Amino acid sequence: MPKSIVVPEGTSKPIAPFSPGTLADGVVYVSGTLPFDRNNDVVHVGDAAAQTRHVLETIKTVIETAGGSMEDVTMNHIFLTDWANYAAVNSVYAEYFPGDKPARYCILCGLVKPEALIEIATVAHIGRP
């Protein structure tokens, strides 16, 4: 099956060997997205809500670059470093998914940079190109 790599304009070079997104057979797979700026530094240190918003905006950009929208999201994989941030994350998350909610899971783990409080990977079904 043919696939295409999705790299929004202005995307910085990833810190590991991956692409921001991959489109295959009408499905966009968005890599684990951390609250990084263009230099791969963590933004909004200590603020889980602001980091969540930054991550979801980045994901939105990948999906829109592939031709979809946040309404096309069918699954989110959420990684948190502290359950104390769960309510703040959910508050921002609900803004991005106001209607029917995509499936998701949320786990507690360590992330690649200690200042990062959240990472989200996403799947969106945008239809066939």
TrEMBL record:
<protein>
    <recommendedName>
        <fullName>3-aminoacrylate deaminase RutC</fullName>
        <ecNumber>3.5.-.-</ecNumber>
    </recommendedName>
</protein>
<dbReference type="InterPro" id="IPR019898">
    <property type="entry name" value="RutC"/>
</dbReference>
<dbReference type="Pfam" id="PF01042">
    <property type="entry name" value="Ribonuc_L-PSP"/>
</dbReference>
<dbReference type="InterPro" id="IPR006175">
    <property type="entry name" value="YjgF/YER057c/UK114"/>
</dbReference>
<dbReference type="GO" id="GO:0019740">
    <property type="term" value="P:nitrogen utilization"/>
</dbReference>
<comment type="similarity">
    <text>Belongs to the RutC family.</text>
</comment>
<dbReference type="InterPro" id="IPR035959">
    <property type="entry name" value="RutC-like_sf"/>
</dbReference>
<dbReference type="GO" id="GO:0006212">
    <property type="term" value="P:uracil catabolic process"/>
</dbReference>
<dbReference type="GO" id="GO:0019239">
    <property type="term" value="F:deaminase activity"/>
</dbReference>
<comment type="function">
    <text>Involved in pyrimidine catabolism. Catalyzes the deamination of 3-aminoacrylate to malonic semialdehyde, a reaction that can also occur spontaneously. RutC may facilitate the reaction and modulate the metabolic fitness, rather than catalyzing essential functions.</text>
</comment>
<dbReference type="GO" id="GO:0005829">
    <property type="term" value="C:cytosol"/>
</dbReference>
<keyword id="KW-0378">Hydrolase</keyword>
